Amino acid sequence: MNATETTREVVTRFEQNFNARDVSVLLADMTEDAVFEHVGPADKVLGRFDGHEAIGAVFGSFEEHFPGFDLKMIDVVADGDRAACQWTIEWDLPDGSRGFGAGADIFTMRGDKIAVKRSYITF
Questions:
Q1: Distance (Å, rounded) from C-alpha 118 to C-alpha 91?
Q2: Do 84 and 109 contact (CB within 8 A), yes or no?
Q3: Strand 113-122 vs strand 30-39: parallel, antiparallel, or unpaired?
Q4: Which of 6, 30, 42, 83 could pair covalently with 107 via S-S, beta carbons 3.0-4.6 A apart?
Q5: pTM score, two decimals?
């Protein structure tokens, strides 16, 4: 398998695993010193998070910030050790309706692991 195929496979698996809500499975696809950057609305988790402990805490809090979330992957494009994934997310709002957001993740790989994940979301 070449670098592009590996990147596409890992990123696809990683994004699909968000709905399982198992942080250890997500972190297994990331380097120990991975970086996660999240850019979006001020009322959500934002910032830069370094390493498994910090990233795991953020990923583990998604249910709190996006209760009942459902992430749907639209497309993954990969080239060598880089990839981009377009996605949507829906979650439960306090009034019983569903929230909706659209986003994109930009990935940098190191070998067969994600070294950097930058997420951009809009509502």
A1: 21
A2: no
A3: parallel
A4: 83
A5: 0.93
CB hemisphere CA count around 10 (13 angstroms):
30
Across 105-122, average pLDDT: 97
Rounded Cα–Cα distance for residues 76 and 7 (Å): 10
Non-local CB neighbours of 45 within 8 Å, separated by 6+ positions: 38, 58, 61, 62, 65
DSSP notation for 26-91 = HHHTEEEEEEEEEE--TTS--EEEEHHHHHHHHHHTHHHHSTT-EEEEEEEEEETTEEEEEEEEEE
Report whether pLDDT(100) > 70: yes
Mean pLDDT across the chain, nearest whole number? Answer: 94
* Domain architecture of the chain: domains with CATH: 3-122 (3.10.450.50)
